[in-house]
Amino acid sequence: MRVLVGISGASGAVFAVDFLKRCPGEKYLVVSDWGKALLKDELDMSYKDLAPYVEATFRDNDLAAPFSSGTNRYDAYIILPCSASTLAKIAFGIGDTLITRSAQVALKERMRLILCVRETPLSTGMLENALKVSREGAIIAPIMPPFYGRPETIDEMVAAYTKKLLPLVGADGGPGWRAELLGEDQRRPRIEYDPDSTMHEME
Ligand SMILES: Cc1cc2nc3c(=O)[nH]c(=O)nc-3n(C[C@H](O)[C@H](O)[C@H](O)COP(=O)(O)O)c2cc1C
Questions:
Q1: d(C-alpha 188, C-alpha 178), whole Å
Q2: What InterPro entries does the entry give (predicted)?
């Protein structure tokens, strides 16, 4: 599996670091200037600290890098976190950085593109940009960690979100919600599903 990872200058660098650690396969990294600033501000990290988790890192101003061309394929390209500015550029077909040019390529080549947008609140323009790229086939996966797993630490909260990204890029995300009820794992005893009892549990 080959995954291209872009880190742009939105808050949430911790999600990118956790994803890079969890995602198996061959990974390539591009970090924008503001992505680098946020890595430093939020985690005291440099993009160089991420080298152990990737095959190679390309400069965001290197438009001659391999993924500037559709001749180099991958299973998924994920921008995590994705700033509103990067989203807007992608929505309007601007490819003036390696992060945005690679997104332009992903859309034209119909390769999987996942945008982990992080901004709040969202303007009408941002929502329209997200809708536009979603209609073109990109997956909008806003950084919205779930809480049904009752995370007790920031690490657990971060993991609850990044684990949801793994199946989106084609990796194994582990057992799904109440997957034991589906009989996926034949070694486990089958459990009778009683929707009424579930409803009672929820009350
Ligand atoms: C500390 C800090 C936090 C920021 N957080 C966000 C954010 O959460 N979402 C966002 O869309 N932009 C955020 N920005 C603004 C972007 O960094 C800015 O628009 C930048 O031009 C994005 O460039 P890039 O997408 O090429 O990385 C933040 C900027 C700073 C300095």
A1: 13
A2: Flavin_trans-like (IPR036551), Flavoprotein (IPR003382), UbiX-like (IPR004507)
